[in-house]
Amino acid sequence: QVQLVESGGGLVQAGGSLRLSCAASGRTFGTYTMGWFRQAPGKEREFVATIIWSGAGTYYADSVKGRFTISRDNAKNTLYLQMNSLKPEDTAVYYCNANRLGENYWGQGTQVTVSS
Question: Given pLDDT bands bounded at 50, 70 and 90, which one contains residue 92?
Answer without folding.
Answer: very high
